[in-house]
Amino acid sequence: MQKDVDAHVPNYPNLPSKLICLLHNITLHADLETDEVYAQMTLQPVTSYGKEALQLSELALKQARPQNEFFCKTLTASDTSTHGGFSVPRRAAEKIFPPLDFSMQPPAQEIQARDLHDNVWTFRHIYRGQPKRHLLTTGWSLFVSGKRLFAGDSVIFVRDERQQLLLGIRRANRQPTNISSSVLSSDSMHIGILAAAAHAAANNSPFTIFYNPRASPTEFVIPFAKYQKAVYGNQLSLGMRFRMMFETEELGTRRYMGTITGINDLDPVRWKNSQWRNLQVGWDESAAGERRNRVSIWEIEPVAAPFFICPPPFFGAKRPRQLDDESSEMENLLKRAMPWLGEEICIKDPQTQNTIMPGLSLVQWMNMNMQQSSS
Amino acid sequence: MQKDVDAHVPNYPNLPSKLICLLHNITLHADLETDEVYAQMTLQPVTSYGKEALQLSELALKQARPQNEFFCKTLTASDTSTHGGFSVPRRAAEKIFPPLDFSMQPPAQEIQARDLHDNVWTFRHIYRGQPKRHLLTTGWSLFVSGKRLFAGDSVIFVRDERQQLLLGIRRANRQPTNISSSVLSSDSMHIGILAAAAHAAANNSPFTIFYNPRASPTEFVIPFAKYQKAVYGNQLSLGMRFRMMFETEELGTRRYMGTITGINDLDPVRWKNSQWRNLQVGWDESAAGERRNRVSIWEIEPVAAPFFICPPPFFGAKRPRQLDDESSEMENLLKRAMPWLGEEICIKDPQTQNTIMPGLSLVQWMNMNMQQSSS
DNA sequence: ATGTGGGCAAACAGCCGACAA
DNA sequence: TTGTCGGCTGTTTGCCCACAT
């Protein structure tokens, strides 16, 4: 949490700056009012784990599925006005929408797309005008007012592997809506999360947290393999060059280059020797305050080839076992590695019944899963 | 909190079931989206206090100001439809609105009223039709859609002491909107409030809580004098008859009669010997589940004349000193009683700059203050 | 006394191509 | 290629009263 050090917030001296946890359960939610997405995770701190745990986490990291095709458009004043419909970029319409029957005059069809709540929205898709262009007309204004969209917000159309259309929104970064809470002070909240984690760590009992990537983009749950790789794979030094990924406006990614300018504790009083954002960095291209000036080791890719100062403890085999086969084998592996998980080992999204694996980048996984929520 | 006993929630054995606190600060809020009202309080546990503290708390209890005139109407289908305006009950219009000039044909005027966010709403008030009636026409539908009102919700018009019109809404009890939180689990929240209180109690440091009377009507902050009076003034016994106040639909109050049927702990495991709802009661008139079957001693008025089993410890003088004069004298008294408060002793509402005193019934105080938020 | 509905005029929603960036 | 606009038409909004409860 971004929180000024406050004398009134208790310390938890027995709470380390990081906890190794099992991911027991993850549930994806979308706020019914705003479509804001967030994840609910049940974590259980563990004190011991087998090397299979690491391998499985790494395995899951590599499970990136082929991205579905999609397009994302930022809405114009015309798109959101009541005067007309939605102007579909030509390439987008041709890539995502079903092909039109051009023998019709004008070519037109009905399009249906499903949102995160499984609501189906129906639009008239027509190709007309001079010059010709793709438009969504009837049904569009209902969508705009229903989702309370304004110019600057974005819509995302996705075509999944079954040719189903999925529909999402991404609101512009307006002033923080500040609805944070009418029942809980941020102090209590801060204390509560720490107290819950401390209690769970002391008892190896599960606790539940929420992750909202739009409200606070910081990932505070790191895949185990990703963390290990960063810690044991990267030799850090002042002046080292690195790259780091950022998400672009249109849901793509872009790498920016930077230099490590300092290695020191973010909060030497409360979280001494924490690896959380202990790297001070400068960026090659940056307007003031555009990018964070502190990052964590697992967020960056060193540009110089990494070398090992000591053998990484969990890579007993030179080449970690590669598994490209079916999930049943992964299930068996998981069960051997963490038998206390029982049958809860397969994490099911209650909406989609998709089986997923712990260890993915959470944002990556959420994106994937959101896009498949109609399956 | 209404919370099932959960093995994963830590106990706070050093946290007593009640804390004597100083009220450092109280801020009233209204949710910008929903107009839901709530209070934010900073409390500081104290271990000792002078008798002046009790006297001041009692004094504040007696500070009930004369209620401003108001009316409250539950909206009909016609009131909320786009087909027309708002039909003002005759008596309400004559009591609250400025008098019309009946020489006009038809009599009409512009009315302005201010909501909790200091937004001003303008309506055309006209007296017409056959038979004649008071109507709000132009401007009304903007208000209905702006506040997202539906048939069954209520509007409240208040005329304050400066003849200014204030305007509030009170939504019907629909299904709980369940927007509770997208960033915090209820477990963490529960733990957090307890942890914050426990830490504050151990260190005599302040902590902050929120009180939302619509979401959870239970008052969990009790004026000190009210509590003392109840504990030392009422001799309880099984079968004792009592009265208790409830708020009616139209913002009035009504007393219901009941009988004490049991005296025992609500939660003997976690909060042993707590006085919180330790009275089991039955009601003279009650549909099933209409009224709570557990109440606390400070909520009821015994019907039999109270008698003292021992002299109440803080009423050294037979007749507590009565102060009807200016707040400067109260300030001095407070400063002598609780010098550690420093200059924070005068609680100011940042909106109204009204000086208020600790010890009032919170709901009472909120009602008073909300009605003055335009001053 | 006041909730609902028909009549009516004005405002708005929403589909179209023209035009320009 | 696509954002915005004027033209046009069908629907909705919103003020009035009548009528019923």
From TrEMBL, chains A, B:
One of its GO terms (biological process) is auxin-activated signaling pathway. One of its GO terms (cellular component) is nucleus. Signal peptide: none annotated. Homodimers and heterodimers. This is Auxin response factor. Belongs to the ARF family. It comes from Aegilops tauschii subsp. strangulata (Goatgrass). Residues 71-173 form the TF-B3 domain. Keywords: Auxin signaling pathway, DNA-binding, Nucleus, Transcription, Transcription regulation. GO terms for molecular function: DNA binding. Its main location: nucleus. It comes from the Eukaryota. It is found in: Nucleus. Auxin response factors (ARFs) are transcriptional factors that bind specifically to the DNA sequence 5'-TGTCTC-3' found in the auxin-responsive promoter elements (AuxREs).
